Batch of 3 targets.
Target 1
Amino acid sequence: MSTPNLKIENLRVSIEDKEIIKGLNLEINGGEIHAIMGPNGTGKSTLSSALMGHPKYEVTEGNVTFDGKDLFEMEVDERAKAGLFLAMQYPSEVSGITNADFLRSAINARREEGQEISLMKFIRELDKKMELLEMDSSFAHRYLNEGFSGGEKKRNEILQLMMIEPKIAILDEIDSGLDIDALKVVAKGVNEMRNPEFGCLIITHYQRLLNYITPDKVHVMMQGRIVKSGGPELAQRLEAEGYDWIKEELGIEDETVGQEA
Ligand SMILES: Nc1ncnc2c1ncn2[C@@H]1O[C@H](COP(=O)(O)OP(=O)(O)OP(=O)(O)O)[C@@H](O)[C@H]1O
């Protein structure tokens, strides 16, 4: 099996004629965990929305390939089937479909006909992963995300990740609204996924999550592009000193994407 690969080259994305992503390059391979950090409004969420194919986000330039295939030529469900996990691809609340039903059909959507996961194996895996994520077994039988608290939804997102076993995952603000115990549990789930067949991009505001998930690479996004990359020590410096030193280093006067440097 070849190593999973997501390659973003010179990506430019606009919303309503306003350019938000301005020439972004990033490559994620299996076995790697990357983190993107950056001030508010620099285009971090726009990046994940564009990759998931949100119709409001217009890709004006650049290429994105997933395992060598043009991502933007693939339908959103094809992207998931091929092994790209974007949390936003999955419905936030669905009445009448239980969490377990949803997970089983999402797993089977990635398998060939006749290779569907058996009910026994599915239940075994689900039990194991829910235990690891310290989730009460009743969550399996509740309607998808209905009435889940913010923290429970995030935990459920990690359960989806662990059950679906994608090749590459993009986790946008997975740490928002989590208390410290939930944060540790979410980190435990992502760490459990670490293997050469899995690559991950974590979009986060706080270095806090990165105390529990050590990224291989940290990227700083400003004004719609990656302006600095480094190792975990970069995230620690950002936590301690903020972004001003990078702006000074690069001669950036204003971090809002609406204005040119
Ligand atoms: N649907 C939209 N319509 C209009 N403007 C948008 C839309 N989505 C994003 N923007 C604008 O694009 C810019 C980048 O937003 P984005 O959410 O990608 O930033 P971010 O880096 O994720 O910010 P934060 O750290 O605050 O979550 C912002 O100025 C935002 O107002």
Target 2
Amino acid sequence: MDGGENVSVHTRQWTLQPESEYRFELDPGTSLAIKLVTGYAEIFGAELADGKTYLFGQECKAAVFTWQGCTIEMSLPLLSPSQSCMRHVTGHPSVEYLSDETPMVAYGNVHMALEAMRVRALAAVHGSPIHDDGDDDMSGTDAPRVLVLGPETSGKTSVCKILTNYAVRAGQDWTPVFVNVDPSEGGWAVPGAISAAPIPAPIQTATPASPLGSVVTSAPNHVASNALLPLSYWYGHAEMKRNPLLMDRLIRNLGENIRDKYESDAESHCSGLVVDTPSSFAASSGTGSDHRLTMIKACVDAFRINVILVVGHEKLNVEMQRTYGNRMTVLKIPKSGGVVELDQVYRERVHKYQLHTYFYGHVIEPPPGLSTKAYVQAGEQTPDLTLQLSPLSTTVNFGDITIYRIGEETMAPNSALPIGAARVVSEVQPLLVDPALSGSGLYNAVLAILAPPNPDEAERYDEEILDLHVVGYIVITALDLPNKRMTVLSPSPGSLVGKTAIVGSFEWQE
Ligand SMILES: Nc1ncnc2c1ncn2[C@@H]1O[C@H](COP(=O)(O)OP(=O)(O)OP(=O)(O)O)[C@@H](O)[C@H]1O
């Protein structure tokens, strides 16, 4: 269907009672335009500005919540009877309904308790008198450092966004650090990464391609003025069970670097942090479940957690109470009935959206009949939705980039080893990958380009590359074995010669 200048548009309003929400789910190819007409409303804690049109796309599922009550308006194309079969591609959500049963009061109370911790932490830094109610176990002068745990699609990411956004909106100039240790989610960059960023402004929700807001990739900073510069490590796989030892190490690296990078001054330290985790940390059965307590411990140590929130899971709550209840607050919070179950096929589509967005930026086409121009001219479009990037396709020699794979042997199969010889590869051993070998697995592979190693040779060590953060990602789009050259798609024109990269299990094709 075309941009549809000749499609007429009608509006439909929803009136929301106080403490209720409008929930919607979009199908592929559908976008939705919502405007706040009266009252106050928020999406996962980020306030909607009055009269501004917000666009949602790429199968976004979310809710507009209001504390005080509000009216919101959708702009929808008016369909003739012959077009009604096109409803699914025309700005109509496939699921939409109002609900007055939300866990927002409970989440609001958690926010208030965390806010009191921040205020006390700051008072302690300034040497001001500390008002301690003494009636909760979140007293003391530590900034809140919150670990959010819960089973699959319990709403962990949404809770993390709500708590972070409420902190940012508290008017105290807090910049809480959002930590994403769920490699299947992608966070700010591409799936496979774990990362952290201090959040200075509310995280917007528009598309699952950027679940935590947009980031700087190849865009000049002034274009992506609201973009964040996260600190990332590359795990390379979607699932924790693939390499728990590597995950453990990266979590610890991330924690250490957050301390060095974001918490050097006492005041930013008071904002605290919120850690979003994968559901595998909560799964008490199935493969990988034996590693989950190690992973939780890695997070507790690395991020010096002092509050654990368990989203809607009684057994995990009891387990966390037993393990950590004597030294920190462990709180069970309700799961929202609005959380949508996401299947594997959907998650794979979202990974594709995320990779596409990383290289090309994203444009959410408004529903037919609403022109993109109108949004931009009216200043209504946020840079989030129009950031278009121009990646570069370049050819490099095989030897220009040193590529490693962590802890996985890909060359000769075990059956090809001499009888009696066992291949011993540590899970965290970096293995050189030779692009000239036909089974290198590099075609269409996503590679993380690492920060340069220590310039001081004496400080180098074997596994140093495990401890280097990511500076960008590339995809190998063609391999020319006879000429020993490969074509790579990269977000910016910087030279790749001499760079070190790690390949994981993610592949991407346009
Ligand atoms: N109240 C709500 N109304 C509508 N959609 C919602 C609501 N809360 C969450 N969602 C949507 O449900 C989906 C799952 O939520 P979320 O990502 O927060 O869960 P999760 O526990 O982090 O998932 P995962 O299993 O990937 O770790 C997301 O698409 C989210 O936007």
Target 3
Amino acid sequence: MTTQQQIIDALGIDRNFDAQREVERRIDFIIRQLKESGTRALVLGISGGVDSTTTGRLCQLAAERIREQGGDATFYAMRLPYGEQHDEDDAQAAINYIRADEQLDVNVKPSADGMLASLEQAGLAFNDEYQRDFVQGNIKARARMIAQYAVAGRHNGLVVGTDHGAEAVMGFFTKHGDGACDITPLAGLAKRQVRAMLSVLDGPEALVNKVPTADLETLSPGRTDEEALGVTYDQIDDFLEGREIDREAAERIIRTYDRTAHKRELPRAP
Ligand SMILES: Nc1ncnc2c1ncn2[C@@H]1O[C@H](COP(=O)(O)OP(=O)(O)OC[C@H]2O[C@@H]([n+]3cccc(C(=O)O)c3)[C@H](O)[C@@H]2O)[C@@H](O)[C@H]1O
Ligand SMILES: Nc1ncnc2c1ncn2[C@@H]1O[C@H](COP(=O)(O)OP(=O)(O)OP(=O)(O)O)[C@@H](O)[C@H]1O
Ligand SMILES: [Mg+2]
């Protein structure tokens, strides 16, 4: 078996993708997880990007269906900006589209800045402002994780993640930040498959086609994922769908997959 095929299998990429069927299958998955765990709430940060818009709508539909069956479930959508978000319009478009049962707006800037200030006070120094900004980016992602787990803890809920095949293969998430969650409804999907699902769900056109950004670095707001990754999502998606891609791009994907293996595993133990 080729390395490409091994990765496709390890990430659970489905060759026979059908957007409508996957929407239904993944709503059922969320409903089953709530029932089996005995929890009554779903918690998810809504950024204005395509992943959280899609996942948010799946969560809302799952909560509504449970209530229609006489059960108890509430979806808590969280806005978690770091100060003012440059694409706040998109975040609001996502919120208006998802129509979550409940919404909480929490600015993560005071806690993220507070943590960095305390670390620097304790003597942590950085090589330059870019390294400092990168480390601070991961602190922002983890501050969002803390906020979501606080709400889940209060409401007996599950924290929902947005990781999918195209991010997982590149390890492109903050370990124990946005990578920390209880369920990942988008697991095993290529990025274009996530877009296709949002389209089937009648999501706003602008969000279906939105350029992906982690938006973690203050010194380069809205920096595109593709710029950071060094490959395009089309290349990643083609790779995951078993197509032949540019050799250099394939090598980069495989190298990155190997380097980030630890992010897809449980902590090592003796
Ligand atoms: N071999 C190994 N075995 C076990 N653990 C290992 C390890 N190497 C590093 N580690 C641990 O992992 C840490 C590094 O991982 P991590 O803290 O995640 O940091 P890192 O992977 O360096 O940075 C996160 C990356 O994900 C991107 N990101 C984050 C959040 C969201 C999105 C998005 O798409 O929206 C993207 C972000 O832009 C950045 O490029 C190390 O500090 C160390 O603690
Ligand atoms: N400003 C934010 N407010 C609320 N949640 C956020 C914010 N930034 C990131 N998140 C959470 O972290 C997750 C990971 O971010 P990521 O950028 O991968 O997803 P996205 O923004 O939904 O889609 P895309 O990858 O296309 O930008 C988001 O799906 C969301 O749940
Ligand atoms: Mg984003």
